[in-house]
Amino acid sequence: MDTDRLATLLAEVRDGSVAIDDALDQLKRLPFETVEGHARLDTHRALRTGAAEVVFCPGKSPDQVASIMKRLVELSGRAMASRATREQYDAVKAVAPDAVYNDLAQMILIGAPIPAPHPDRYVGVLTAGTADIRVGEEAALVLEWQGTRAERLYDVGVAGLHRLLSQLDVVQKADVLIVVAGMEGALASVAAGLVSCPVVAVPTSIGYGASLGGFAPLLTMLNSCAGGIAVVNIDNGFGAAQFAHRIVSGQAARSKD
């Protein structure tokens, strides 16, 4: 349940279209709800944090993913799952026919993204190379799912810096940048030296042997000489999007005061 759904429920109680006992029955599920003994859905998360629970699929069976997604849709009309396989998607599709699968980001989506309440504010999602787009697209989809506009700038790495410089207008007007890079991970430092907004750096596991599965770009980003960079875990587009979304939402909320 999110704030809009709760406000609607309270209005229906006020107007008499929903009985108090029925409303109480719905509110009882707010802290969490158990699904078939293998999951406890945090149905209160959107009210606490502004972002609903997203299902992390690795380690879960197709049937487990399907049952969790089915119940999330029943509760809120929408659901998202990350790092999903085709097999897991097929199981979800069987119980939720509206489910769609994004092959590039490996995500399952049911229902429409939230319209951006502040369309003039956006997060620029940059990837160093085409091979990094999977992680960048994960971040972009999570942003849009939560109601934050994402502007994608893919394959703008330092090996051809003119590609990034040609997009400076978009980059410098962003409220936050998510910079996704493998290999040596230098793009985050370059981008942070061009903008005044916060930069969220995402190292990826893309690269030759000495990149050590993402540790080389991770260390580069952690040791950046440019200020204003926060670094998330390797391949963690989801975490970068959550962090950037909170920054944009907080900026919007403060501008109202």
Keywords for this entry:
single chain; 257 residues; alpha/beta; Rossmann fold; 2 domains; five-stranded parallel beta sheet; four-stranded mixed beta sheet; 17% strand
Structure commentary:
The chain has helices spanning 3-15, 20-27, 45-49, 62-76, 86-95, 133-145, 162-165, 168-172, 187-192, 215-222, 237-256; strands at 33-35, 39-41, 55-56, 79-82, 100-102, 107-110, 122-127, 149-153, 176-181, 199-203, 229-231. By secondary structure, it is of the alpha/beta class. The radius of gyration is 20 Å and the shape is globular. The chain is 42% helix and 17% strand. α4 (62-76) packs across α5 (86-95) and α6 (133-145) packs parallel to α11. It has two domains: 31-110, no CATH class; 122-256, Rossmann fold (3-Layer(aba) Sandwich).
